[in-house]
């Protein structure tokens, strides 16, 4: 049976491709899309999500806007990677997908509580603000969610700072709430996503697919490659698609159970996700970290999804 997911995102080039994978994969039943401020302001990322939904012809799936800033910190955005719109490069269509009147937190809580226990998987690909607010508003969702698959954090190194990954660092208080909520959390962080490079073989495979979603994806990756080249990468790592790919095919990743915490107060380390890989995790551990990727297998799922969307 397809896995029912709520995709909580901040499009963002890699979020956009993650949304296309979720929409086109037969292994996924996309039940809601929610947005959170992160790569750009809430207004911009919500508009981007609706535009991607329009390109993918996503119907009968509610889209809702959520938190417009982190829980307690000042807002951070990333125009150096995603441009001023958050999705620079391709020309975006006027959205035909409607925005749900509900706040994203309400939609998340209502969807989980209406489903059977273990039926909904949460896939956040940005800051964890919406999830933290949702589990604080209705703590019972923690025992009803199948798992949280989060693109964020890192066991080794960072990108916003030498030790902190962007999604973790912009709202570390939300990360702590989510990690300590008691539900299973799979952290798909930089250790894995830096292996998900959109190299020439990937671009050629996508170029061979007909249809607007594949053409749009190529335009996204062309812009993304340019911004990442300025950061020292020959090919861009497409982070957020990895979280959705884990739900599609967990076997394409090597995942290890490990305790995970987040630093809130370090002068140089705020936002660092501290992953204890020294020993086997205790049986009670509900957090795990993705470390290894079969990249061709993962990209095969993306190409297949784009073909299905066409």
UniProtKB/TrEMBL annotation:
UniProt keyword terms in alphabetical order: Glycosidase, Hydrolase
Start and end residues of each Inosine/uridine-preferring nucleoside hydrolase domain: 5-299
Listed InterPro entries: I/U_nuclsd_hydro_CS, Inosine/uridine_hydrolase_dom, IUNH, Ribo_hydro-like
SUPFAM superfamilies, A to Z: Nucleoside hydrolase
UniProt keyword Hydrolase, yes or no: yes
Top-rank taxon, per record: Bacteria
Record keyword RNA-binding present: no
Single GO term (MF): hydrolase activity
TM spans (from-to): none
Classification via CDD domains: nuc_hydro_IU_UC_XIUA
PANTHER family from the UniProt entry: INOSINE-URIDINE PREFERRING NUCLEOSIDE HYDROLASE, URIDINE NUCLEOSIDASE
Protein name per its UniProtKB record: Nucleoside hydrolase
Species name: Agrococcus versicolor
